[in-house]
Write a structure and sequence with these properties.
The chain has 295 residues and is α/β, with parallel strands linked by helices. It has helices at 2-5, 22-25, 37-46, 61-70, 79-91, 105-111, 132-140, 159-167, 182-193, 200-213, 233-244, 249-257, 271-275, 282-293, and strands spanning 10-12, 31-34, 51-55, 73-75, 99-101, 119-123, 144-148, 174-175. 44% of the residues lie in helices and 10% in strands. The strands form two sheets. The chain has a four-stranded parallel beta sheet with strand order 1-2-3-4, covered by helices on one side. Strands 5-6-7-8 form a four-stranded parallel beta sheet. The radius of gyration is 21 Å and the shape is globular. The protein starts with a helix and ends with a helix.
């Protein structure tokens, strides 16, 4: 992956931190990813000479000075954190670019009026093209556009077509698909590297997907959580996809039956809908799942 794309591959220490094996991994990695001070120190000490990238939902003021000694790159999760610690991190050379992530076009548009914004990350895929005009403005203003949700949160089945569609838009600077194994890595790279125009058959398939999927589907961002009734909302919608679109109905029903809280446990409070950045009618969608799964 690194050789073919030029990207950096990091070890996520939250998932694997057995440092006895770091010498075996180091030749194949650019460095480590840390979620705080102690993981950053671990990566710096046990994989010397490699990069340490840090991301945390909220940093502590009493740890920032030491953290900046270990980190080569640091990511902030909110404007408040950026305002509090950004100047020190920028001065220390730990921030390359400052960007904004948005789920709504109004936020995207607002970001393009701020002269300190260098990148914008926004959903773009076969069925979500509402940001295309703003993507063009990114290019005109020399702002990098990072394409998130290229597979519409897992709702799209044809990964090659999804990546081909994105790759044909010159306003996309970077695309960040999730990948499970080497086969998917190869497939995504090959699709992006195929610079040929979309065929008539591919364009026809795009139309079919848009008609079938529409725009009212879960992207699995999980901003709706936590549910008042303890329902794993996005998990239920994933199983609904397996039930109706992926030909795994029996498997989906088995998994649904094993869930502790089901769609029918919804109390109708609507708290989830207030938090959903896509304004989905979650209560109606859960009611539909209740009917489809029978509980």
């Amino acid at each position: 992956l690194a050789r073919r794309t030029g990207c950096k591959v990091l070890l996520a220490q939250k998932a694997f931190s057995n440092y006895d094996l770091y010498p075996l991994l180091a030749p194949h990695l650019a460095g480590t990813e840390a979620s705080g001070l102690f993981e950053a120190r671990l990566g710096a000490e046990e994989m010397p000479g490699k990069e340490v990238h840090v991301f945390c939902a909220a940093y502590r003021a009493d740890e920032m000075d030491e953290l900046l000694r270990y980190a080569d790159h640091i990511v902030f999760n909110s404007p408040a954190q950026l305002a509090k610690f950004g100047p020190a991190a920028k001065a220390a050379g730990k921030i390359g670019h400052i960007g904004v992530t948005a789920h709504m076009a109004a936020v995207f548009e607002k970001a393009l009026t701020m002269d300190w914004v260098e990148t914008v990350m926004f959903p773009y895929n076969i069925v979500e093209t509402q940001g295309e005009a703003l993507m063009q403005r990114c290019r005109e203003q020399n702002v990098g556009f990072i394409c998130m949700k290229p597979m519409a949160g897992g709702a799209l089945e044809d990964a090659r077509l999804a990546m081909r569609f994105i790759g044909r838009n010159e306003n996309v600077s970077v695309v960040i698909p999730g990948m499970y194994d080497v086969r998917e890595i190869d497939q995504n790279i090959e699709a992006i590297e195929d610079a040929s125009p979309l065929t008539e058959a591919e364009r026809a398939q795009l139309d079919v997907i848009r008609r079938e999927l529409g725009t009212q589907f879960c992207r699995r961002c999980n901003y709706c959580q936590p549910c008042t009734a303890g329902i794993a909302i996005s998990g239920i919608f994933v199983l609904e996809g397996y039930l109706n679109r992926y030909g795994l109905g029996d498997w989906a029903k088995q998994r649904y039956a094993a869930m502790g809280k089901k769609a029918g446990d919804c109390v109708g409070c609507g708290a989830c809908e207030k938090r959903c950045p896509y304004q989905l009618p979650i209560r109606q969608m859960l009611a539909r799942c209740k009917d489809e799964f029978g509980a």
